[in-house]
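Problem: given the chain below (254 residues), write out its structure.
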Amino acid sequence: MTADALPISRIPRTGLPPRAVVVGDPARAAEVAALLDGGREVSHHREYRTFTGSWKGTSLVVSSHGVGAPGAMCLFQELAEAGVRTIIRLGTAGAIRAGIGDGDLVIAEAAVRDDGVTQQLLPPEYPAFAAPEVVLALQRAAVAARAPHHRGVVWTRAAFQPGFIALPGDTYTRAGIAAIEMELSALLVLASTRGLVAGGIVVIDGANADELVDEEATGGYNPHRDVVATGVALGSRVTLDAVHLLATTEDDSK
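Solution.
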């Protein structure tokens, strides 16, 4: 390891743009980076694959964090240490609220902290909330792209498969939680404690509420369908547009 690289993600300690898009899959990071002008890989270690480039003149980082909040938190912390100040997570999720379809986008306003890591950092009463300017930028970009989208609270849960402990799924369904994913609340908590600007948008790749699942029609959970790929492609451009909108707003305020 070189002295100018951070220990876990191996991203450069200095020289990165101040804005980042983070995704779970290293291959998806490469796909998003391929949309950028001058996109180039700057590091790849474990699940952490990082690129830089520009979108509509706005320089940014695209980086992958793998599956699950504990590992993702390592990347988020090192991005902050490297000087990144704005981070938007682009992920996939299961729908919980009725009326949200496969391939739709859900813009997170906040997240339930069931992530398996922030409970070891802060009391459970501490909130996980998205920066309002990120929510509005994502919504504005989604409207401009004519992308089917929703806003709401997402449930960040550490365990992907159900176990033997009864979950509050029915409670969260009745409470109107929009979707379930695995990393966002960790990012939101880190951001609010570090003075960062952060938020998230997820692409629906299936329905998780039991009453929404039509096993016969869908064949069960399958995130590798064309409708999901189309949603991810659209979500990628929406997210990049939101980063550009945030940068433009910041420049105008100076």
